Amino acid sequence: MKLATASLASLSLLLVALAGCGEKKTDAEVTVKGEVAANNEAKAGAEATVGAEATLPEAETVVEEHDGGSVAWNIGADGNVKALVKGPENKPIRENVSAALVWKAGGEPKEVPLTLDAKTGLFVAAGPKLEADLTELDYTVTVSGKPWKGALHVPVGGTASLVAGAKAAAEIKVPEGKLGPHGGVIQVVGPDRVELVADEVSGEVRAYVLDADFNAMAVGERQISLGVVADAPTMVVLAPAEAGAYFVGKWALAADPLKLTIAVRNAGETRCALVGYRPGARVVVGASAPRIKVRVKTGWEARADALADMDANADARGAVKVAVPKPDIDAKAGARADVRVGAPSVKVKVQAPRIEPPKIKVKAGVSAKASAGAGIKFP
């Protein structure tokens, strides 16, 4: 009986031990599975972690990379600002760092204090509500006495709109390296393809709206403004020109810009895009930043100079300008010539000899009609 009792006791202990081992194994499996799930969730969340206490969501944050580190900006439509400064090892910098922000709403500069939360590593500020199509924010981050300078042109929806614009641009494919029909860079802004090109001599800037085949189309009711970062940041508001064929403006740049932000307002809605920006990418700024090629030899300035020279030569010679209606040649005319010329308008700047009316020759087979008010200048 004692032997049987001992055997039963030993068997009970063995079963308890086995049961205990099974429970520990189950706990280990749960722990491993939990770690894997957490890692997958962290990757899927795509968030920039700040210490253990705070995060900046990637879907609302634009990261600018400087020599020596980076600054992640999260700017809300309500004007609230969060910024994270990281060093070259991608770790938050909490010591020997300061930041200053200048908010240019309506062109008026306003300093907005940035305060460092040492616990989270975030700089925070409360700026004015974003209301313009683009608002310029100039910043200086100083790390161990070295300043990192930059500028953001933020749409009414904040940095989240810039990220959303990059995602929308990625859905409309533009062949790599493809230029517009006028030699400019092509950027997708919402549903639109916009070509930007500037004359490298005069500084005239044009924006063309392109169709699906990359041909210029009428601009319609759209409005376009540009945020430009070159030697200094600036804003350029473009105006429709030539019966809505394109937008035109002017800037004073000695070289191609480092950053270009385009805002297109249409049907009461503003869409925005940072030229060349892709979701999740960092925007390189500073001395190592590549430039955006938009300045080309267009010939616009040459044509303007030729017209100016014609006027100057006429003034220097004499001083008599005869305005004659401009002929309108109809290529579809038959074998007859029909010419109607209005009376010339004469302006005398100095004492001039008797003015002979201009002689106009018309070849057979061409129909020419006078256009009232138009003029050709004669020496």
Largest beta sheet, briefly? 7 strands, mixed
Class by SSE composition: alpha+beta
CATH architecture tag of the largest domain: Sandwich
Our Rg estimate from Cα atoms comes to 34 Å
Mean pLDDT: 75
What does this structure look like?
With 379 residues, the protein is α+β, with helices and mostly antiparallel strands. It has three domains: 54-154, Immunoglobulin-like (Sandwich); 159-301, Immunoglobulin-like (Sandwich); 318-379, no CATH class. It is built from three helices and 27 strands. The strands form seven sheets. Strands 12, 13, 14, 15, 18, 19 and 23 form a seven-stranded mixed beta sheet that branches. The protein has a six-stranded mixed beta sheet with strand order 8-9-5-4-3-22. A four-stranded antiparallel beta sheet has the order 7-6-10-11, with helices on one face. Strand 18 (239-241) and strand 19 (246-250) form a beta hairpin. The longest helix is centred in the N-terminal third of the chain and has 44 residues, at 2-45. The chain is globular. The termini are far apart. The model is unreliable at 1-51, 313-353 and 357-379 (pLDDT under 50).
